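A quick aside before the break. I want you to see a complete sequence-to-structure record at least once, exactly as it would be stored in a machine-readable document. Don't worry about memorizing anything.
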Amino acid sequence: MRRDSLLQLLAEVERGALTSASAADRLANLPYEDLGHARVDHHRSLRAGLPEVVFAAGKTTEQVLAIFGSLAKDGVDVLATRVDPTTAAALLTQHPAASHHPAARTVSFRQTSPAATSARITVVCAGTSDIPVAEEAAITAETFGASVIRLYDVGVAGLHRLLSVRDELCSAHAIVVCAGMEGALPSVVGGLVGVPVIAVPTSVGYGASFSGVSALLGMLNSCSPNVTVVNIDNGFGAAYTGVLIARAAAHI
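That is the input. The structure line, written in tokens, reads:
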């Protein structure tokens, strides 16, 4: 349940438009709903400002459908990440208004009215091979109300490409930078801007990249003090944190 929904519910009780018993029924699933295989946290939007998200990998299609549906009936914006094509098709059948983003491996379902927002996030990736992780970040940020600028294929092998979009970088409240190989791009971006840079090491590279470990260690050792790092390929986690930062910076 969102904070504005709760306030509206309380106002209806205060006006006498809703009985206290009916209000209690609507709140019956707080703080969580036990589905047997999952305890869906309906209280998270009230506590943290953003709703729970479904990590679909490792779950059956039926489990994802149940969790997604439980969140959807609460009226929040719902996001499932790491969704395989079979599960995505089932979700779209259950929720025709939802959107499948194959590159990002996500399904998103916007239920709140899109509002003009001043929370701005820029998502950057070093190369085209990093786009799936960058898109997971971009879709996450957009689902939760941020305005997103995408700057793709601007890695350090051609630094002029990054410098040509410096104005777009500097307009953001937070920047998510996805890079594999040696993972140098976040340090360069961090040296160009005065906002938090959230670095995402990707599992892109040849053998000695160790499926993203080299990029992870490089980012952890960044000399740019405004760079912080999430786990390998975790575009979702970077964007979730970025949204909170951007909302605070924009005084939302």
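Two observations worth writing down. The CA atoms of residues 64 and 134 lie 23 Å apart. The chain has a mean pLDDT of 87. We'll return to this after the break.
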